[in-house]
Each structure stands twice: as structure tokens, then as C-alpha cells.
Amino acid sequence: MTSGGSLALRFLMAARRPFIAIGAASLSIILLALAGSLFGHPPGELLAILLRGSIGSRFAIEGTLLKSVPLLLTGLSVAIAFRAGVWNIGAEGQFLAGAIAAYLAAPGGIIVAILAAMIAGAMWASIATAMRIWRNAPEVLTTILLNFIAIHLLGWCVNGPLRESAGQYPQSDIALATLPMLGATQVHAGILIAIAVCIAAWFLLYRTAEGLRLRATGFNANAARWAGVNVTAQIARAMAISGAMAGLAGGIELLGVTHRLFERFASGYGYSGIAVALLAQLHPLATLASALFFGALTTGAGELQRAANISATIVTFGQAIVILALILFGTWRLKERPHD
Fold first, then answer.
1. What is the b/e burial string over 276-312, where b = at least 16 CB atoms within 10 angstroms of the residue's CB?
2. Does the structure show a pLDDT above 70 at 2?
3. Which is deepest, 83, 229, 298, 307, by most CB within 10 Å?
């Protein structure tokens, strides 16, 4: 194949990516409706309930936006790490570490609490980096194990030193700092922080030399090393940035939504971030649209549970369909990849 033909084919394949993502999302919605019909509801009725619950009112839209904030940040966390070729599956644990740190730092004010959340998330992720460098332990394994450690750490905190002063429930007292609301809405200022982080992540990856080195490391670590890139340093930086974003998500969720710690605080946001990042094809700006889609799906699933008695966990089924569809489309793309 000629160089010009190869470039043209590569351009067409890149232009097709948004349609692949839209196709995967549409397929998940269709299969969700068909699966819901097993409960005796027509697919059209279920889709109407899903839409009404996600964007059908001001209250629903605000709920979708609130759900989208942690999904956007955990999705960005996964995207940054995956771009560097690091399989960070630990956003859940980093999310919890950030929330705990934000609670402890809340007496110092919002800015201190936010910074503490980011630092805690980065440090929690860096444990996996240290294990990889020191003992060549795969980050897929260590980050998953760190998730469980963070879950038990949170449980110990809310049943022990951070338990509410009343001592009635395994939860903390209300945090001493909260994010301001945007006007007369439920939406907090964390959404502005998340959007700013999204733009910053795009700028880092595609407009800086550091981002080029990071992407080169993920594309081919051996070639990057040959070109003079310090691959180990890039992996460490990517994991720290990734952890900081997930920690920020936990801090914002605490300071803007729950205002207190409790068991099962993360609600699976760290794992959902993987689906968000994959649907966005690991592109930071596309992650914004992907997070809104999954946020709407999560909010709409709550309405399905209330109106149609269908478990809200059906959203997990939708996430699985998205990932499987992207794997299927990705396999086809590999078969069609141009060869020079």
C-alpha cells in the first residue's frame, strides 16, 4: 500500500471512532430495553422511563450531572493511565483514599481538602508503581488488591476513629467544609473543577512534550526507551496523575454530595470509570460525553427501579454491553489496520 493510501485509510479509521462509540452506546440501550422486557414491560415503555428519569425534568438533569462528575474524573483517571500503557484498575481505592483525606483535611477549608484528596489518591496509586519497580508486580493485580485494602480502611474508619459522635451508625459526622452550590440547584461547583481537569488532561496529552512522551510510552515502551524517554519515570508520573484524579473524584463526592463518610461510599465509581474511558476511546474530551451518558444511564436506572420495579443494577449490564461491543468493534479494526 502506498504511503498516501495508508494515511487516507488511517484517517478514515480515526474518523470512524465516534460512530463506533455511538454504536456501542446505542446497542447497550437497545439490549437494556430488551432485557427489561423480560420483566413484562414493553421496550418502548422502558426507554421512556429511562429518558424521563435521566433528562425528563430539572431534577433529573441535576441528578444526571451529579452522577457524571465522579464518572468523568474516574474515567479521566483510567484514560491517563491506559494511555501510558499502565493498567490502573485501582480508581476505586484511590477514590476512597481521596475521600478519607478530604474529610480529615476539611477543617482547613475547601482548597486544603481538595488538595489533600488529590495527594492521597496519587500516593495510593504510587504504591502500585513502587511494587512494580521494586518487585515487578503487575499493576493489574496490585491496584485491585489496593481497592480491597481501601474498602477495609474506610470500614475501620467509620466504625472506629471517625465514627459519628452519636455512635448510632457506621458513618462519620458531617464534613466541616462543603462545596458551594451553583445557584438554586443541587449541582455543586465540583462540576466546574471536573470540566477544568478534563480540559487540562487533553492539553497535557496532546499539546505538551510530556504528553507526547507519555503516549509514546503507552504505544511502544521499547521504542520510547530507544528514543530517550525515561519509561519508568513516565509510568510513575502517569500513575500519580491518574491516582490524583480518582482521589479528586472522591473528595468532590464527599464535599459536594454525601458530606460524610460511610461504608460502600464509592458505589462502584472507580470501576465504572473503566467503561467511561473505554467508550471515550481514551480521549479526555470525549470522556466528558461518555460520563454524561453513563450518568444519565445511572440516574435513569434509578427511575426504572421506582417505576417498573427493575433493579437499578441493570446499569452494570449496560456497562458490560458497552465494553463487549467496543471489544468486538476493536477486533474488526485490528483486522482492517493498514499495513505499510
1. bbbbbbbbbebbbbbbbbbbbbbbbbbbbbebeebeb
2. no
3. 298
Encode pLDDT of 71-95 as tens digits: 999 999 999 999 999 999 999 999 9
Sign of CA dihedral 339, 231, 122, 112: negative
Going by pLDDT thresholds of 50, 70 and 90, the confidence category of residue 313 is confident
Q: How many CB atoms lie within 10 A of CB 1?
A: 11
Collect contacts of 229-233 with beta carbons under 8 A, ≥24 apart. 232/133
How many CB atoms within 10 Å of residue 62? 15
Q: Which grid cell is 175? A: 464534613
Q: Residue 91 carries which DSSP code?
A: H
**Up-side HSE of residue 200: CA atoms within 13 Å toward CB?**
11
Sign of torsion over alpha carbons 76, 80, 85, 87: negative
pLDDT tens profile 187-245 = 999 999 999 999 999 999 999 999 999 999 999 999 999 999 999 999 999 999 999 99
| Unique residue bearing C-alpha cell 454491553 | 321
DSSP symbol at 170: S
Residue 264's CB is within 10 A of a number of other CB atoms, namely 9
Bridge partner residues of 171 (DSSP): 262
d(CA 254, CA 50): 27
Mean pLDDT of 246-266: 96
Give the CA radius of gyration of the chain.
21
- Its sign, for the CA torsion 314, 320, 322, 324, is negative
Specify the 3-state DSSP secondary structure of 107: helix
Considering the entire predicted model, what is its pTM? Answer: 0.91
Contact predicate 274/268, CB 8 Å = no
The position carrying cell 458513618 is 171
Q: Label residue 113 left, alpha or beta by phi (over 0 means left) and psi (-120 to 50 means alpha).
A: alpha
pLDDT at residue 331 above 90?
no
d(CA 88, CA 139): 6
